[in-house]
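User: Quick sanity check before I run a bigger batch. Here is a single chain. Can you write out its predicted 3D structure?
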Amino acid sequence: MKIRLIEPKPPGVNVYDRSRLPRLGLPLLGEILHRAGHDVTIYVETIAPVDWYDVSQADLVGFSTTTSTAPAAYKMAARMKEIGVPTVIGGSHVTFLTDEALAHCDFVVRGEGQTTLPELVEAIEKGGTFKSIEGLSYRDADGRICHNAGRPPCTQEEFAALPAPNLHLIAGHERMTQMPYMTSWGCPYGCDFCSVIHMFGRQMRYRPVETILDDLESFRSGSTVFFYDDNFVVNKTRTKELLRGIIRRKLNFQWTTQMRASAVFKDGKTGELDRELLGLMKASGCVAVYCGFESVNQATLDAYNKHQNVSEVENAIRAFHAYEIHVHGMFVFGADTDTADTFDETATFALRNRIDTVQFVVLTPMPGTPLAKRLKETDRILSKDWSLYDAHYCVFQPKNMSAYECQWRTHRAMMKFYAPEHSIRILALTLPKLLLREQRVLYEQAKAFLLSGNLLETMIGFSQDSLRQLKNTLALPTLRLYALRQLQKWAEEAPKKTPWDQPLPAMR
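Assistant: Done. Predicted structure follows.
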């Protein structure tokens, strides 16, 4: 069969607009279908535009969605339905709101799709029945909605046997700025606002370390790898084994990942650092971590069921910086324990602790989460325009402020953090250190330039390590200035989309 899979672009302006980083669900499913002999192409709108003529010739078109991209997927599916091409949608949003999705498509894959989708494809190809396919929802010949029995999450053995996602099936994959890889599924924690555990469960499943290392060897030398795990450091013994393997095999890449602040401690009660882990992270090429700090308000952390305290966050930031690892801190505003002071206090905290980059978002009641259920029961949800559910808009009524105030204070706090003077200060502090460290190299290259007059030839003469140091030094202030511009663009767009009448205050 000719199968085309599509990941719609998220709506609106956000700080990840230029990341060109696909989620891995479609590349995994694409590889499974490719191995079964099907003609598969994947379109990720953030990487390359969809070739709609090619898609219109398909035997089946599949869409992978989050809540904010569901409306776009529904429109695309309706377009295919008009010309008679069967459609299927998967992802967390449609897993929890299946009937809604079936108003726009033919099939919905609920939960994990690595077995359900191939079975659906086989049934379509052979003209078989859909009744026995676990995890599938559809309409029968009479138009009635049918929800087959749910499919349990895959076992450790089944997960370990899955192939690596095939990034080469993505149209325009050569434009990707990072190489994504996921070493595990699941999360043992239970944050109140997160849908991960309701989609993938709390039972951790891991790819074998040697399999991971073999896969990583196929990546471009010198590339940046993003480990997509929801929590990269759950089993420390395994994580350390993986990092030692990267060092042993001399894999030439830098990497980033998502992890909890508490992972840097050997003993959380005493605050003793796990220096072995931090050293292995640094030696294996870690340049940045994305940490869900969530709040600087302890009452809010407890409400989120985060199981961490503010002092752990501060100590973790210092620990990462001691090993020259950048920190991207993620904070969520709008809890019932937050007040008008929380926003400015958080920006001040981030600046005081020299967090490298931040993401301040608004608490969002994603379908399937305890938060969404609770807000629905108390009639506090203001909008079900799913395109606003990207954590940049306040779509519910906070307890201690208006939705309008929550949203503009979130934006103002981001603007405070990303103010140009802070980027200039970073450059003023880091560039002299680099110049001092590389003074001999700079002297030799300046002399070479004066003799040759060829700038390109002179730059080639720098060592790879020197060029990498220069790139890393300039990257942070450049990224922060880019984030500032994105915030300004978002402020121009937001008044057209907000679920309340008032526009955001003017922002400089």
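The chain has a mean pLDDT of 89.

User: Great, the batch can go ahead then.
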